[in-house]
Design a protein that fits this description.
- By secondary structure, this protein is an alpha/beta fold.
- The protein folds into two domains: 184 residues, P-loop containing nucleotide triphosphate hydrolases (Rossmann fold); 69 residues, Orthogonal Bundle (Conserved Hypothetical Protein Ylqf, Chain: A, domain 2), CATH 1.10.1580.10.
- The protein has 14 helices and seven strands.
- Strands 1, 2, 3, 4, 5, 6 and 7 form a seven-stranded mixed beta sheet that branches.
- β1, α4 and β2 form a beta-alpha-beta unit.
- α11 packs across α12, α11 packs across α14 and α13 packs across α14.
- The chain is elongated and about 80 Å long.
- The chain starts with a helix and ends in a 12-residue tail after the last helix.
- 32% of the residues are buried.
- The structure holds guanosine-5',3'-tetraphosphate (G4P).
Length: 288
């Protein structure tokens, strides 16, 4: 085991975290509905537990993005867990599915109070002001583009204009802050940091790639052995240790160093790439 693997705490700066969260205060204050995005493959590590103190009683909806990449049974279990906690959540493939209708349906119970107040005052139904929040790389911009489409792109691409935050009208139901709120990551343990790196929220270079791949391999061997078997044509995977699995991958793929030794780094890189590109199938890194 490397020094890195033995290291328990990677980076954890509570002071920075509080500062970053406080900076989002005005954005939260100006919105009616907080849409938090997390990655369906690791809904624990890709959320920030301090968010609830930031948003207080504001209506809050959770979106598990990248449904198309996550293990569907595990995603279902997560949705049931969140429902039990009283948190309204849904999952989506933000790249390929329009979210506006599901968003509309899910937001109804969350904004009952606001709607009742409007009715009491004899006001017309006002569009909801949405704030999209999440840690890096979970799909915040994709969500905004999914809802606002060309409207978001047009504003963002105007050259030579220093933009302040802008509200974009999506429909008579929603207006959207065109800039997402970026939540700081919370990764008190090495395991969580590794998952965040595999999912692209922490830059891979920050953690040694061989360590990332080894952790992934150990995880897949236990949780998704048939994916490994199929992808790399391996037999009796339970009998092989990680080194033997790397050797088998190198042999099958012809990953050899100039002297003829197996190029294990190349096997490590291709394992990570295969996971990220779903060549190993739909895989979730965390269960509820
Ligand atoms: P962020 O604003 O939270 O940082 O995330 P962003 O929307 O930039 O999304 C990060 C990456 O995740 C992008 O990939 C985006 O396309 C992808 N993504 C977002 N939501 C989904 C989803 O539901 N399913 C899938 N499969 N991918 C999703 P990229 O490689 O950086 O860009 P691209 O080549 O996909 O455009």
């Amino acid at each position: 085991m490397s020094d890195f693997q033995q290291q328990k705490n990677v980076h954890y700066f509570p002071g920075h975290m509080a500062k970053a969260l406080n900076a989002l205060g005005p954005m939260v204050k100006g919105s009616d509905l907080i849409v938090e995005i997390c990655d369906a493959r690791a809904p624990f590590s890709t959320r920030n537990p301090m968010l609830s103190s930031l948003i207080g009683q504001k209506p809050h909806l959770l979106v598990l993005s990248k449904m198309d990449k996550a293990d569907p049974l595990i995603t279902q279990a997560w949705l049931e867990t969140f429902a039990k906690q009283g948190l309204i959540a849904f999952t989506s493939d933000l790249k390929h599915e329009k979210v506006i209708n599901v968003l509309l349906k899910m937001s109804v119970p969350l904004v009952e109070k606001k709607r009742a107040k409007e009715a009491r005052l004899g006001m017309k139904k006002q569009p909801l002001r949405l704030l999209i929040l999440g840690i890096p790389n979970v799909g915040k911009s994709t969500f905004i583009n999914n809802l606002a489409g060309k409207k978001a792109a047009r504003v963002a691409n105007r050259p030579g204009v220093t933009r302040a935050e802008q509200w974009i009208k999506v429909s008579s139901d929603f207006i959207l802050l065109d800039t997402p709120g970026i939540l700081p990551m919370n990764y008190p343990t090495r395991e969580e940091a590794v998952r965040l790196a595999l999912l692209g929220s922490i830059k891979e270079e920050v953690l040694p790639i061989d360590d990332l791949a080894l952790t992934l391999l150990e995880f897949l061997k236990v949780n998704y052995p048939s994916s490994l078997k199929e992808r790399y044509g391996l037999e009796d995977i339970a009998l092989l240790n990680e080194k033997e699995i790397y050797s088998a991958i190198c042999q099958k793929r012809g990953y050899l160093l100039p002297g003829g030794a197996y190029d294990e780094s190349k096997a490590a890189q291709s394992l990570i790439k295969d996971f990220q590109e779903n060549a190993l199938g739909k895989i979730s890194l965390e269960r509820p």
